[in-house]
Amino acid sequence: MIRILIAEDQALVLGALAALLRLEPDLDVVATAGNGRDAHELCKELAPDIVLTDIEMPHMTGLELAAALAELGLPTRVIIVTTFARSGYLRRALAAGVRGYLLKDAPADTLAAAIRTVHGGGRAVAPELALEGWSGGQDPLSERERQVLRLAGEGRSSAEIARQVHLSEGTVRNYLSEAISKLNAGNRVEAFRLARDAGWL
Asked: Per its UniProt record, what SUPFAM superfamilies does this chain match (predicted)?
């Protein structure tokens, strides 16, 4: 049996995924989690073979979860199941050690086959995403620029961002200025939108 943990913050989607996978004779959904932090704790406790996770989740994103599991050295393999068909997300997912990247509108048998492929040591990436991943632009942002731009996009002021990330307000403004410049944006709001749409946040 392939032991699976599903991390998804939308209850209906979580329930549907679990119900579909439990119909497969060789797949066992051992746990579900509504956010990345809970999924991380459950993985430490249960060490599932596969984690299915969305990208955007409360407390810890799917990409952060994948990176954290890699740091723990667990044998758990991560498959992203998301609505975000963006090359930036795919590139970041692969860099974080993710073994599969599928869209939520994929047929159930495609998901089951992907789980078996990844469990067997392979990769499973939706074909249209694989093509997009090669053709999409490179992420120009540093991790700090990404962090402050994400907070700016949430409507935080430079002072609020500085307090949250433990930097000086001037340093935060410098990071934002660099991000705006790299993205050829007119201001932080436009820079956030461009980076988000490209999948770099």
From this structure: C-terminal effector domain of the bipartite response regulators (SSF46894), CheY-like (SSF52172)
Q: Look up the pTM and report it.
A: 0.69
Residue type, 150: R
11 CB burial (10 A radius; 0-12, 13-18, 19+): exposed
Q: Quote the pLDDT of residue 96.
A: 85
128 and 161, same domain (yes or no):
no
- Span of 25-29, 96-100, 105-109 with lowest mean pLDDT: 105-109
Cα 2 versus chain centre, distance: 22
Tokens standing for residue 74: 């667990």
One-letter amino acid at 103 equals L
Structure tokens at 69: 């599991």
Taking residue 17's Cβ as centre, other Cβ atoms within 10 Å add up to 22
Domain range holding 118? Answer: 2-135
